[in-house]
Every structure is written in C-alpha cells, then in structure tokens.
Amino acid sequence: MAIPDKRIRVLVIDDSALMRKLLVEFLSQDRSIEVVGTAPDPLVARDKIKLLSPDVLTLDVEMPRMDGLTFLENLMRLRPMPVVMVSSLTERGADVTFQALELGAVDFVTKPKIDLEAGVRQYAADLIAKIKSASTARVRTINNGSRPAAAASAPSRRVFRTTDRIIAIGASTGGTEAIKEVLQAMPADAPAILITQHIPAMFSAPFAARMDRSSAMSVCEARDGQQIVPGHVYIAPGDWHLSLARDGARYVCRLDQSAPENRHRPSVDVLFKSVAKFAGSNALGAVLTGMGDDGARGLLAMRNAGARTLVQDEASCVVWGMPGAAHRLGAAEQVCPLPHIASQLLDWSAA
C-alpha cells in the first residue's frame, strides 16, 4: 500500500520514557502518521515545536517542570495547534482534562492504570483515530473575555407550550465545550434535555457536575428509571446507553449496556431513536460537533416522527463529522451556528 503524500506529523509529549516509546511504536504502525519527535516535558516540547513544526501534539496531563495546563494555555495563545490530551483515569485527571478542553485541546484519551503496554495497545486505534481527526479540526483560541450569566441569552418572555417537550442532544469531539455553551444559554425552566456525549465511564459524572455548575438548569448523570422533568438535564453515563421511555404518563430515563451502536456506548442513535418512538412531535433534536456519523440515522428518525431537528454548522464545529453526516442524510431541517442553537431550540419549544 502506498504511503500517503502528506503524513500527519505528531510530537509525543510525556514524562514517562516507557510511555513515549510505546506511543511512538504504536503510532508509527499507521502509514498516515509520522512521529517526528518526543519530549519528556513542556520546556523541551516548546523547542521541538519550533524545530519540527508538528501537525498534532499528544500531551500528558500531568507533566514535570511546567504543568500541562500552563503549557497548553501558552501554546493556544502563541501558536494554536491541535492537541490530544492523554489523561489519567482519576477524578483529578478528569478535572484537568475538562480544563484542557476549555483551553482548546481537541480531544483526549485515557491512560491505562496498570499493564501499560497492553493498555496502550488496546487504545492505540482510538488514539490514532483521534489524531487523524485532530489534524483536520478547527482549533479554538482561548477566550479571555468573561462569559455571560447562565441564562442571559434566554428571553424571559418565553412561555413553553407544554411540560412534555423533550430536547435530545448528541455530541462527540469538541462536544463538552459545545454542550456547555448551549446549556449556559438555557433558562432554569427550559424543557428537559437528554444528552449523549461520547465519553469514558470515569469522566461522565465529573462532566455532569461541571455542566451543573455552568447552567441555570439542574444537570445530573442519568439514573435508570429516573423521572424526566422540565428544568433538568440528564447526561448519559459513560459505557451506558441512555434512552427515553414512558412509565404511564411520565417520561423516564432508561439505561442499558447492550452492544455498542456505531462503535459507541453510549450511542447518540440509541437515544434519538427512543426519543422518536416515545416523544415524536413533542421532541427537538440537535447534533453538535463530533467525529463519525453517530446520531445521523437517529436524528432522521426523529424528523420523520415529526420532531424539529437541527445540526451545528461546519464553521463553529471542531469536527463536522456527525453534524455533516446528519445534514447529508436530510435529517436536519436547519443548520445553526453554535451561539444560536439554544435560542432556536427554545423558540421551537415555545411554538
């Protein structure tokens, strides 16, 4: 097989010599990737970036001499470029990772706790896919301005038609920050929102807690059988599918660990298809930034069931994979810039 004309140039930054060796070994097996160098800390990395001009960095979250967040903040201010974080599966690791995504990192993978070689071998394919996606991603620069209050952009005059309205949102790469922007613009009494974001199991609870601090709505990690009520947001736990179901006159959350769909658990398609079935024309659906095509067929099912549907526009996405796939399928009646998505959903909800 011919080697691509232009390979993705990757610089690996990790304080562990074994981790650097393993990452170089596994990444180099993909013909579209060239590991142009490694660095044991951000200070060495800074010089190598100038010398080697990589396309993508892999960056360990916890680094010596200069912490990864300080390095990332400086990088995004002075030389913005795609970064995939390598995060530890700990509460602190999750918190630092979400801070890194806020600063402009494109995506992250989780570092194995034990048996490093077997762990890296297991997630190598995921890392390679994320590096390829990152190489074409739109890198966000740091916004040093203050954010508006949680419900500032949501007019208080809206009167919602019914408590039965359900908003379903799906996202992947770049989604944690996109979801945050949407939720910050929602008023406390907005219709109930169900969210599937592709995320590892250890990260979904910290993500939900982070969103709860950012939104006027009450945000939680969904529980099986939990009643769905207005003013609340329910986020799919990592490694569990989230579905909408009815229990008598009430909507409830259903969680299950059936086979991954579109290679994902949780899967956006699983959520959207259940919303199409049980909420029909009372539902609103949105696909935000993300790699792949999960959610496209589910959003089409929602639209066919009478739901209002939209996708995030390409210009405001980190990766226009999922929204683009839904758009090409005819699943979205509207394409919206990220800053307008919340207001569009609220307008539809009030109709």
UniProtKB/TrEMBL annotation:
Q: Which residues carry this modification: 4-aspartylphosphate?
A: D60
GO BP annotations, alphabetical order:
chemotaxis
One GO cellular component term of this record is:
cytoplasm
- Keyword field: Chemotaxis, Cytoplasm, Hydrolase, Phosphoprotein
Q: Which part of the chain is the Response regulatory domain?
A: 9-126
Q: What does this protein do?
A: Involved in chemotaxis. Part of a chemotaxis signal transduction system that modulates chemotaxis in response to various stimuli. Catalyzes the demethylation of specific methylglutamate residues introduced into the chemoreceptors (methyl-accepting chemotaxis proteins or MCP) by CheR. Also mediates the irreversible deamidation of specific glutamine residues to glutamic acid.
- The protein in question is named Protein-glutamate methylesterase/protein-glutamine glutaminase
Organism of provenance:
Hydrocarboniphaga daqingensis
Q: Which gene holds the coding sequence for this protein?
A: cheB
